[in-house]
């Protein structure tokens, strides 16, 4: 009875929001459309995304992406007030990811000597209580200065070790450290959930961590030439199937074929294993396809728990990702068949 009282209102809200997600027919129609302008007009005139588009003219894809991302974050924050106590603390810890992504984006721009003007106006700042001063960050001219401008936040503490590091791997280290900080905090908060939610979230989160560890070991070895010791030091804790000894063995694997063979024995799908050796985009899409199907499986077998919320969050995020892959395919003349291979949702 407790879980019914706890989740009845939030699940009603989520069902309403879920009804606004794109249907399979929308995906098919968008893929069939041949021009960006026609795809934009379909979204505006035929789907619920039209409620967000106030201008009459065709928007550039970058502006449309900012508009829809803002909608994503605001949708999640509308659900937040339905939760209390440890559940709200968990939701807040989830929202930290958007702040981490903002910081990573800003640091990447600085590392490439790109313009930071109006950075704060181009991102969405989640309504979580932190001490990140975005205006101060925007004034930074070097990575070292940006890290110092994160004073009074947990990010300065975990990143200050990279001050003075001018290697080509600096941003890779920084991004992995920020992700590790985020997941460590999320795992800590997850342990405070009630017994049923904790069990479900631990598996969902643990499997996500497994796949991220595989991807990061692959990238760290292929693109940055990291030593096995460095690779294992940057793996995330809390994996579901892949424990420390397996990850360590993977880090010390000397050949690509052996790497794939080990993943093949890990308990994850053959399609995921086969994606390694293709483009990074295919690896990412296969990981997200796996997670999408995993969330749907959990939803089917769950009732009145945190899963409904997590499924909605990820369904919306995956839809946004798919939507902009489709729009980019129109802008660059990429065929429907090729675009489909990068989509998370099957069509």
From TrEMBL:
The entry's protein name is: Uncharacterized protein
GO MF terms here are: proton-transporting ATPase activity, rotational mechanism
At the top level of its lineage, which domain of life is listed? Bacteria
- The source organism is Helicovermis profundi
- What are the protein's UniProt keywords? Ion transport, Transport
Record has Nucleotidyltransferase as a keyword: no
Q: Which PANTHER family match?
A: V-TYPE ATP SYNTHASE SUBUNIT C (PTHR38682:SF1)
Does the keyword section mention Repeat?
no
